[in-house]
Amino acid sequence: MGRRLTRSVRLITGLILALLATGCGGGDSGGSSGAAPLACGPYPSQADSPHVLPYDVGAAYTVSQGNCTNFSHKTGSGDQYAYDFRMPIGTPIVASRAGRVSRITTRYEDGTGVPGEENVVGITHDDGSVALYFHITKDGALVTLGQDVRFGDVIALSGNSGNSTEPHLHYIVVAPPGSPPPGNLPVTFSNTRPHSNGLVQGQSYLALPYD
Ligand SMILES: [Zn+2]
Question: Which residues have CB less than 5 Å away from ligand 1 (the ion)?
Answer without folding.
Answer: 24, 82, 84, 170
